[in-house]
Every structure is written in C-alpha cells, then in structure tokens.
Amino acid sequence: MNRFETLLRFGIVASMSIVACFIIQSTGNATPIVADIQIAPAATSTRIRLISSEPFELSAFVLTNPDRLVLEGPAINFQLSPERENPIGPIASYRYGAMSPERSRIIFDLAQPVLPSELTTTPSLNGGAYSISLYLTTADRQSFDRSAQATNTAKLRPPTQSEPSAPSIADSRPLIVIDPGHGGNDLGATGVNGLFEKDVVLAFARALAKKIEAEGLCRVMLTRDQDIFIPLDDRVKFARQHGAAVFLSIHGDTIASNTDVRGATVYIGDDKSSDAEAAKVAEYENKADSNGSIVTAPADTTVADILGDLTLRETRTRSSLLARELVTRIADTAHLNHNPLRAAGFRVLRAFDIPAALIEIGYMSSKPDLDQFSSPEWTDRMTSRIADALNDFLHPSRAEIPAQSPAAQP
Hints:
This protein is α/β, with parallel strands linked by helices. The chain is about 25% helix and about 30% strand. The strands form three sheets. It has a six-stranded mixed β-sheet, with no helix packed on it. Strands 2-5-6-10-9-8 form a six-stranded antiparallel β-sheet. Strands 14-13-15-18-16-17 form a six-stranded mixed β-sheet, with helices on both faces. Strand 3 and strand 4 (about 45-50) form a beta hairpin. It is elongated and about 70 Å long.
C-alpha cells in the first residue's frame, strides 16, 4: 500500500523569478535517508533524482557568485559519498551537510545557468524507497540573475540559535570562546586519508574546552558543538555578545602542490598580510560563507569608526602577545611551520575589542600531521599546551609560576 502519492508542479516564469519551493509532506517522524543522487542531463533539461527512504519537504533556489542551485530540507541522514567533483551536464559538483540540527542542504555548483521547473515524487514498486526527481531547465543569464536576486535572503541564514542561559553573576572568570572552523555544508579541507577538516577541528576544540574547564581558571564556550554551519560574522557576534576575553579559531591548513609541507601556524588579524601565503590562507578561509550558501552583507564598521583606532590598536597588540604565547607554548609538542607566526585579513579575527588568534593545528594535506590529529596522546599534549597559553595570557601572574617540565608531560 502506497503511503504517499503527490505530484507538485511549479512552472518558472522568467519575468517573475522567485524562490522555487516544492513541498512534500512526510507521513511519519522518521529521519529520511538519502542513499543516492543521480544526475541525468538532456538537451534542454536536466533531472536530479534523490533516492530516499521517506518523502520530505524540499525547497529549491539559485544563487550567484558563484552560480549555485540549493536544495534545502529537514534533517537528512545522507548515506552517500560526501561530494562529487566530476561535471555532469550543468552540474559541476555538489556537496551536502547540516545547516542546523533540523535543516540540511545539498548545494550544486553550476557550470551553466539552469532553473528548477518541477518536482515529482514516486514510491518504488515494492514500497521500499522514494524517488524524488527535480527537473531543471536551461536558462539565459538574465533570467537566472533575476531569480537569484529575488531569493529571500532571510532564507539563506540558518535558524537563530537560542540564547544560552546567562552565566552566574558570581562567576567573574574570563570567558574563552573557541571557534571550530567550517561545519555542515562547509567541509573545509579534505585530508589525504579522507578526513574532513570540519570534523578534525571540532574534535580538537572539544578536547581543548575540556582542558580549560578542568583547570578552572576560565570559562569556555564553543561557537559550535556539533556539525552545523555558522556564518563567519555570527561567530564573531557570538563572542562579542557573550563578552569573550579571548577568541580562538581552530583550523587545519592544506596545500595540494606539496604534501611535504606540514606544521602548525598561528595567525592574527591585520589589514595587511604578513606574506603572500598568509593572504592566500585568509582568502580561502574567508570563503566559508560561500561554501555554506550564505549571502554575506558588507561589514558594518560604524562602531569601529566611532571608537577610532585606539581600541583596535590595543586589541591587535594584545592579539600579537596571545599569538606569541601560543607559539611558544606549543613549540615542544607541535611541528611548527617554517614561519609559525603570521598575520592576514581573516574575517573571524576582525572584532575590534577582543584579542583573537587563528591556529592552523597542522596540514590536512600532510600524512604526518593527519596521523597526529588521530593520536590521543598528541591531542592531549597539544590541548594542554594551548590551554596553558590561554590561561597564562589571561592570568599574567600565573605565568610567573615555573611551568612543569615538558619531560614530565604524558
């Protein structure tokens, strides 16, 4: 007995291009499993077919710079390869992931303009799966751009996170905000062993948070504690809204041209990059919003302009001291990059009033570094060193106490 038989058809009118929404009501509360994505191009149209265990709500819209088709639905259990890079028809590649615990996205990078025209859902003959087919029609540049411009930008942002309960008034310990980079649709770099940067840095950030909490000198919060995408600006806002004393962003570097390059690097924010390589790293990391299909508004510099350069200069001086403390502390545990202390225009480091640093704990393109990421012993030592650096930075009098000999560390 078929549980669901619905066919929704929406025509796309070029002169009234808007977000295309295809609604399919699920018959239960089970998380749908998408087991396959099939792409079949034709002369003037292309079919994208999802093989799913359940029907589910689905919306489709297009974005520009670069051209993308976005499918958004509920939480989905994806049982397929994480991304496809082989072009098929108008689809150059695709990726998927969670936008929040309740929402997921599949993002198709487009090689040519297309628009969604209709969607059909058909249960299999034996009732074991559903075929959800989205049909795309070839579009001219103007029609595609009009559709992208008409997209409700509010739809591009993940649901607002609920405000955490306020800390106790009696708890005056400084707050350290740890920011695991990437997440959700934004995989970050892919390691030579198949690991994703978003997963490596989240696991590392959780371990670091536990170390800081265990010492008890500071409070700690994570910008994300699960595999969800958070826009870059929202990470900075999170730190400012909670009164962070320090902001530390965790990432993994990559360089495809030379797998022998390895080691940790610590960056601070600066309008002028310290070197060309630092500028490239910042440019790559600043594309995270695009990877997550977020439209980025121009930066609001009003507050910084009003306060003038004094606060910003003081913050950058403090950030430089923080970065040097980090490099000094991890030197006996991490293999350092040949130039471990750098500066560049990272968007997550632009808060004018919070000392901040971004640490690339190693290279996802380096096999030795990847082996370290998977080592509990290395993670324990590395997070201990970073926790000590943060505590000493925020409690200068503590730094006068002789540090435990590195040889005594596990």
